[in-house]
């Protein structure tokens, strides 16, 4: 049998198997088609950007490894993203950091960035049927130090307030031109390496800076604030903790950003979804993979991601969750890393959408807990991978392991020559 015909035949068998437990695979495929991941531009170049290409990455984050082929120019970042896009079914967004502006070789400081520095991105995104999201960048700058928006020095705080207001304005312009609100994510690394005694002061400063930043509403922006447990070199105190930002988001009608790597090592973010969504309209996710710390390993189909997707689908919250990716691995082929993580996220959502949720709910309501557990276990072995292959086939993107050779060819022709 020809390969495509085999995929179709496998899908028909899978469809029947799922139908026997009350699941409509065609419906799940339609839902998956409409999930837009926000691809993070920084996987292409190890969070370097175009403001200070020779500078080091600061702010408690690290991209480890030195695999050849890192993107060095805007053209190369775009070329890589176009390649990634060609290997993913569905329509996806791109999340840009403020350091990725098209500065035309000029030195433009962070408190000077303007929408015009991102116009070529807006045009490129439009030409590639992508929508944009945006992030202010507090790291890798002489004024970053250990604190930015919470610094004791008002001059430093004002610099970062100006940067963040400008970043929101850029997101607004993106949202306006693409006819769809852009998510703006605010994460700052602020903290201390050793015991802090005046935690309240720094948190008051951060709150005051946020009040100034969010004093204006931008019509085309969905604002999010991202907490963190700690950064490297800032292990003892993080000003923007989960409680801090959760309180701020709820009080001010913003989104909280949940990054899988920003919590205690055994803490899972899936269980935060149904609590947070009782108090905020929407959420932003940073799908990542922590290994012992916020190491930003490539996302794989692990329990944290499958449980997160399940919780979102079970809570009927797909329309209230913005799904961003956030990992950067410089030790393996970067495009391969990008695609593995994005596909793993799509697979997790598909698996969640293929759950026989009505039956599981019925068991739970009847206190039939053995039956609930048994069906959950059986679901793991249902042929979801055949449904995913069919999704790729229908989208005309590489099926199964075929994307490996496509990425090898891209390495040979493009990234390997950089
Ligand atoms: C580039 C960063 O990873 C990103 O802005 C932020 O979301 C983060 O997760 C920092 O740890
Ligand atoms: Mn993040």
From TrEMBL:
Binding site for Mn(2+): 262, 294, 296
UniProt cofactor note: Binds 1 Mn(2+) ion per subunit.
Keywords: Cytoplasm, Isomerase, Manganese, Metal-binding, Rhamnose metabolism
Record has Isomerase as a keyword: yes
Pathway: Carbohydrate degradation; L-rhamnose degradation; glycerone phosphate from L-rhamnose: step 1/3
Listed name of the protein: L-rhamnose isomerase
GO molecular function: L-rhamnose isomerase activity; manganese ion binding
EC number: 5.3.1.14
Subcellular location: Cytoplasm
